[in-house]
Amino acid sequence: MKKLLAILLIAMMLVFTLASCDFFELPPETTTTTTTTGATTQPEPDPAPAHECEHACEECGKCLDSECTEAACADKCEGHVPPHVCEHACEECGKCLDLECAECTDKCEGHHEHSYEAEVTAPTCENGGYTTYTCACGHTYTDDETAALGHDKVTQEAVGATCTATGLTAGEYCTRCDYKVEQEEVAALGHSYNKEVTAPSCKNGGYTTYTCSVCSDSYVADQTAALGHSYNAEVTAPSCLNGGYTTYTCSVCSDSYVADQTAALGHSYNAEVTAPTCFAAGFTTHTCHCGDSYVDSETAQLIHIDANDDEMCDHGCGTEMLKPRYTVTLKYGSHTKTLEVKEGTKLTEADLALDSKYPFALVEWQKDGVAYDLDATVTGEMTLTAVLESYKLFESPEAWKNSGSTTNTEIADETNPENTILQFTTVGNYSGIYSQNLHLHEDFADVRYIYLKVRVSVDTKINLRFFKENNAFASTYMQAGENVSADGKWHIVCVDLDSLTTFSKEEIKLMLIMSNVAATVEIDDIYFAREEIEIELPEEEKPDDGIGVKYDFESGADKWVTTGSTTTVELIQTGALSGTQSLKVSTGANYAGVMNYSLSDVDMTNVNYIYITIKSNTAIGNLQLRIYADAEINDNRTNGITATTVFEGSDYKIIRFDISNWEGIGFKTQQFTKDDISNIALIGAYKGTIITIDDIIFASQELTFE
Predict the structure, then answer these.
(1) Is 211 buried (19+), middle (13-18) or exposed (0-12) by CB count in 10 A?
(2) Residue 695's beta-bridge partner residues?
């Protein structure tokens, strides 16, 4: 079959070649026939060449080309098959050498031996490779096939479009062949402008800035004209030294400039003559209305003269001319005072009087340890020393100033000046009064003790606070004081200054008298003493020995808190008389009770016994008084002092708790002393018990009750 196809192909090529050769031959010469008719003769056209069939059957001669439309080939071959032509014939016997040829049945019997040449076809990206073996006789076959290589792809990254530039999609191509995925163009995004308006100012015009929110590209447009300045004028008048001018200031933008200058006025002086005296030179003072001044024309100081021999300077300066003058130094402890007296002068009480601010009474003056006689005359320089005694101080209310929340300060005269009383009322803790003009810092070197005779409306501690600065609110101070009972009687509070060591006595500048609770405080006298002194109180004013403080329920139930599961604490009126108050406690579980949150009113140092007037609606056993060193209910306490009395019913009982042999035995934690006691608690009322407490008395010794 292959040989047949080859023969047909060769025949077709020969026919095509012959036809081509005919095409390129020159046409035959033509003759021109001329007819004389008095007109031009035209040549006759060549006849059309006859059609020659390119594909004619060798057997019948008819056209084999089914697509040929020429009229000469309208009669087609009816199917004659051309004879087979062997492509690979043996040169010796002429028989077919192609063992695969099915047309040639008579094969060469071995006159030819194949000699092949190899032609390698390399693999490509899409097709595999192979080797073609061909013999000179035309026989061929393929072998040694290899797989296709596949594309060697290179990726082309996408390029994003911007506001002004186009972008590209991703693409790829093969480095070995023509495979390619083309990148496609992406349109530019275009700008997205935001506008910002700049208003016009006095100097500059306005405009709008357009800025792309994507790429920040910007441009300016919509310009408007500048507004121009609006100036206000402020005139500065000329002075002696400086010229005048006008300042023009824009009311819109504050731009300013100066113009309209005028010259300085220059000084205009007035002269004032000061005449010389015996004590100073004379001079002339020149003063301008602007305050500038200068001094000149000095004249010499005068010299004392006594031309009329009257022992006085003739210039009228009052200077004695003949008798010498001496200095007398007066010493009041650490305070000194000097006098200048002439010879033969006798000192008077007025000359030697103490400064009104010095807080001591004068006993006598001494010279060299001997009492000084006021009748003696001064004959030379000398020093007199004051012998002082303890001094009772009182001043007007204006000499005292409130501190903290003190509400008032007043001085009342009960019957006569000897009984003048200073009174102040406080409404908060640590309030009081301080002296504004004692100037104590000049004199405290000789003071050791300060005594206050006081009476208070509420049990409180009266403190004296001493400041290093003349300021009642200064941070540098030292303090001491004593507890005072509100029993309607006068008490003495003493402070030893030598026990205060924050700073020296000489540095004391201010004294503050203060109460540590809200109370009315009356002060009858203040004593400053170098040594301890005895101050007698009227017999009826002395406090009863043994009784320290009776706890006052008038202040309310809010000073008591519950312990355990106590449900209520309330203040009730138990007597017929108005103001007779008791504390009522209702319990809800075993070992419940109440605790006072602060014993700041009581100095427990001198307390040996605590008496409690109490009643209960049920029998109580193991009633305990627990004592704490903290303001909170915790383990920093005693394990309880148990009462020996068990009682029940509606009658009041007095229970005594003895702490005279206080050892400070702590419970679970550290020990503490009576100085540390801050709270007491009543523990032990059983579930459902209602107890009523009428009085709590703190005493230094045992008491007997009706």
Answers:
(1) middle
(2) 613
Question: What is the distance between the alpha carbons of residues 190 and 183, in angstroms, rounded to a whole number?
Answer: 21
Cα angle 258-259-262, degrees, rounded to a multiple of 5: 115
Whole-number Å distance between alpha carbons of 530 and 332 = 13
- Residues 540 and 525: their CA atoms lie apart, in Å, by 18
Q: Which residue, among 58, 102, 104, 65, has the nearest Cα to 80 in the 3D structure?
A: 58
Name residues whose C-beta falls within 8 Å of residue 130's C-beta, 6 or more positions apart in sequence. 120, 121, 142, 143, 144, 145, 146
CA dist., res. 11 & res. 17, Å (int): 10
The pTM of the full predicted model, rounded to 2 decimals, is 0.32
Report which residue type is found at 561.
V
Neighbour tally for 457: CB within 10 Å = 16
* Bridge partner residues of 257 (DSSP): 248
The conformation of residue 195, written as its DSSP 8-state character, comes to E
Q: Which two tokens stand for residue 333?
A: 């402890």
Over its C-alpha atoms, the chain yields an Rg (Å, rounded) of 69
Name the residue with higher pLDDT: 338 or 622.
Answer: 338
pLDDT of residue 489: 83
Residue range 6-12: mean pLDDT, rounded: 56
Q: What is the DSSP letter of 183?
A: P
Torsion of CA 528, 534, 538, 541, to 10 degrees: 80
Residue found by looking up tokens 């709270």 in the block: 679
- Dihedrals φ, ψ of 603, to 5°? -85, 105
Q: Are 406 and 431 in contact (CB under 8 A)?
A: yes
* 117-121, 463-467, 570-574, 648-652, range with the lowest pLDDT: 648-652
C-alpha–C-alpha distance, residues 148 and 165, integer Å? 41
